[in-house]
Amino acid sequence: MSLVLGPIHHWMHKKIKISEAREKAIVEALKEKFGKEAEDTLAELYKKYPPAQDENKSLEELLEDKPIHSGIQGLIDDVETREAAIVAAFCKKFGEKAKEVASQAAFQHGLRCAQSALREKSLGPQNSSPGRAFELLLDNFCDGMPCDRGAQVLDENERHIVWDHSICIHGRYWDTAGAPPKAMCDIIMSWIAGFGKGINSSIAHRRQKCIAHGDDVCVSSYEMS
After folding, report:
1. Beta pairing partners, 160
2. The domain at 7-224 falls in which architecture?
């Protein structure tokens, strides 16, 4: 693989690193809540789903001679499946409380990620509309590869933005790991809600439809409260 990768590949790597950071935030919250039992659960799980290594390596170093597209897809597969496996294991052992802990950790990580995105773009929350929040969400949330059909805007004005997904891009990872789809969707939606709130404290996230909860599409919005 050439050492000179296009900007889109590094953009994807940034989003993968954010997913890894969310996973780590969830793990730390679960460890804090469940203590030694959490450590034992993770030790067993990591035998099948090893934690991310070499987090300081560049994308070029991580992919080595792998084809770019399949290599990046492999990194997404690893983090999304491992995160789902963690949620599956803890929900099985600790029930609804584990989902609550993971959801709150995801919300707080989303909030911090949004604040970092504002600093990176030299933006202030006072000028950040729902549309700007969604724009920054797309720049930070790993929602499949660029060739996948990601979020599509349905409606936008200065007070809200509405978007949909016709397929659940994340569902296959949840199925592979045996994770409950509703719990996983709730956790991801918590992260998206935290992100919106981190962009502007007046922005609320609303999930209108959800494939994991039985609807034929996913529809969400950011709205000024």
Report:
1. 223
2. Alpha-Beta Complex (3.90)
